[in-house]
Amino acid sequence: MKRYLEPYLLNDLKKKMVFVTGPRQVGKTFLTRSLMPGFQNPMYLNYDDIEHASVIRKRLWPQNSDIVILDELHKMKKWKSFIKGTFDTRPEKQNYLITGSARLETFRQTGDSMAGRYYHYRLCPLSVKELSSDLKPYEAVSALNTLGGFPEPFFSGSLQEARRWRRQYYTDLVREDILDFSRIQEVRTIRILLEMLRKRVGSPLSYTSLANDLQIAPNTVKKYISILESLYIIFLLRPYHHNIARSLLKEPKVYFYDTGSLESGEGEKLENTVAVCLLKHVHFLQDTQGMDIDLHYLKTKDKKEIDFVMTLDGKIHQCIEVKLSDDTPAASLKHFLSYFPDKPQFIQLVHNLRVKKDMDNISLRSAGEWLSQLAA
């Protein structure tokens, strides 16, 4: 399966270094290796491999390599200074593709500036749009709700195989990645927190409540959630407010990159699948076109809430509510119809919708059909 970022990476590699980040086993290695046949002398090196790590540190790859792919390079001490110097002194027409399973900003605290030397892409799990050439939209949503969007469990087509994969996946995450960020005595607490978050998808998080349950300080909870976010295990959505500082003080909602890992009902799984698809759409437009687009949720003091709001140039562009089967406009959408002078689109995505329709200035659409029209 050809991944959606491939043509964009090939185009940008002609100009600068390219960084690709994303969750473990989301398909970064598959994607980068699929680019190699387009080059005469490609070289792939993974810093997790002892022999490869030695080659990387000593820069022993062939000088005639026209693309050098360095995987998990962020685990190397002073990696930023290393790759900056390597790129600045490279042979003519030698391209560099850097991949990693942690967010770049996590590793930017020290070292020389990389400004102007790279493009950054975030590879997301499979989405309805990416699967639309092989599956009907409704079937794609149903499969993503059950198996999640990571390629191996998804294409296994088996819930049993997906569970086996997921068990090993989270074991490896704890053993190999979380320990890079925290002390070994903290790992057990982080694992418990992860289990708690699986049951809180789509609900505003109370750091104080989580801290009380875990018997730790709220700031420690924030630190642990930041670790899980940095490793692309979860992502947070903050409530929209025209005053950005105020929105940051509100409680975020949490979602998982892997919908299949949730311990929640069908409604929560559907909402998580939609969240991942929307995030992928937003990341794609940010990374490929530089658009000022973002994803939030909306909530008022009197508890009126919309699942997702998409902003464009700082203004609300779309208000999106997610339902399993309810084909009557949600009261929350009706409540906000007159709030915004810019007249955003009000959309209710329904998984089990028989006929699309427009009622009370609200568009009721099949979740699968609508998600299949996103950018990525």
Could you characterize the architecture of this molecule?
The chain has 376 residues and is of the alpha/beta class. It has 2 domains: 6-122, Rossmann fold (3-Layer(aba) Sandwich); 128-371, no CATH class. 40% of the residues lie in helices and 19% in strands. The protein is built from 15 helices and 13 strands. It has helices at 6-12, 28-35, 50-58, 79-88, 128-131, 137-147, 151-156, 159-177, 184-198, 207-214, 218-230, 244-249, 266-289, 331-336, 367-371, and strands at 17-21, 42-46, 67-71, 95-100, 118-122, 234-237, 253-256, 293-299, 305-312, 315-323, 345-350, 357-359, 362-366. The strands form 3 sheets. It has a 6-stranded mixed beta sheet. A 5-stranded parallel beta sheet has the order 2-3-4-1-5, with helices on both faces. Strand 3 (67-71), helix 4 and strand 4 (95-100) form a beta-alpha-beta unit. Helix 6 (137-147) crosses helix 13 (266-289) and helix 10 (207-214) crosses helix 11 (218-230).
